[in-house]
Specification:
Layout lengths: L7 E4 L5 H12 L3 E6 L2 H5 L7 E5 L5 H10 L5 E4 L14 H28 L3 E6 L13 H21 L4 E8 L2 E2 L1 H8 L4 H10 L7 E2 H12 L10 E4 L6
Parallel strand pairs: 1-2, 1-4, 2-3, 4-5, 5-6, 6-9, 7-8
């Protein structure tokens, strides 16, 4: 039997990177996965895996989220993965950058949880997994002002949900990765004036000498989604190869 047999898991940002790896890992462990994203072409690639359904979803749209909720009768695990990494200090962060990041990184989680939590409360059982980061209240990271602020807010949101609903069968934890080798990371590296140096800089700060793989982070998602972690709630789980030490 799979570790997630019978569980219905709703996942955002599933088209690539950590979200994609988590969706595949969930399905391989027996879950019925509803994978969402705004990237239709990449998202559809997941349909080749047994147990994965796909839905186009803009997690910043209350209307789209509420329409999706009408389609889903039951949900056991909600995984909020969608996010954006802004590069720069506060002086290089315009108000439009601030608003965009906060809207995608934290407001989207507010909307998703507020919409789907009642379905969990109705059956007195539910599990929420949020994507935060070591670049948050855990560690100060240069050129990550608004990103780190939004990720710190996710830790606060996670603990608040956990505290408020612990007596009603709800768990809520968040995952805090360090640098992960994903398509979005390579896009950001290529956007820098000197991509080769940017890659060297990323690798230089890795105490293990390498970045994490998306699949390694997905293993942690599987653990938190499974009953193996039934006694865990309100935690920020760090997976960063020792970067925050």
């Amino acid at each position: 039997m799979g570790r997630l047999d019978g569980k219905v898991i709703l996942l955002s940002a599933a088209a690539q990177g950590i979200g994609r790896a988590a969706a595949i890992a969930f399905a391989k462990e027996g879950a019925m996965v509803i994978a969402t994203d705004i990237n239709e072409s990449k998202l559809r690639e997941l349909e080749e895996y047994s147990g994965i359904q796909t839905r186009l979803l803009d997690v910043t749209s209350r209307e789209q989220i509420e329409n999706l909720a009408k389609e889903i009768e039951r949900i056991d695990v909600l995984c909020n993965v969608a996010g954006f990494v802004h590069h720069g200090t506060i002086l290089e962060c315009e108000e439009t950058d601030w608003n965009f990041t906060m809207n995608l990184n934290i407001r989207s989680m507010y909307l998703m949880i507020k919409t789907f939590l009642p379905k969990m409360l109705a059956k007195k059982s539910g599990n929420i997994i949020n994507m935060s980061s070591v670049a948050s209240s855990i560690k100060g990271v240069v050129n990550r002002c608004v990103y780190s602020t939004s990720k710190a807010a996710i830790i606060g949101l996670t603990k608040s949900i956990a505290a408020d609903f612990i007596g009603q069968g709800i768990r809520c934890n968040c995952i805090c990765p360090g640098t992960v080798d994903t398509p979005s990371l390579h896009e950001r590296i290529q956007a820098r004036p000197n991509p080769e140096q940017a890659l060297k800089d990323f690798l230089a700060r890795q105490k293990t000498g390498r970045m994490a793989t998306a699949e390694e982070v997905a293993h942690l998602f599987v653990y938190l989604a499974s009953d193996e972690s039934a006694y865990m709630t309100g935690n920020e789980l760090i997976i960063d190869g020792g970067w925050s030490l």
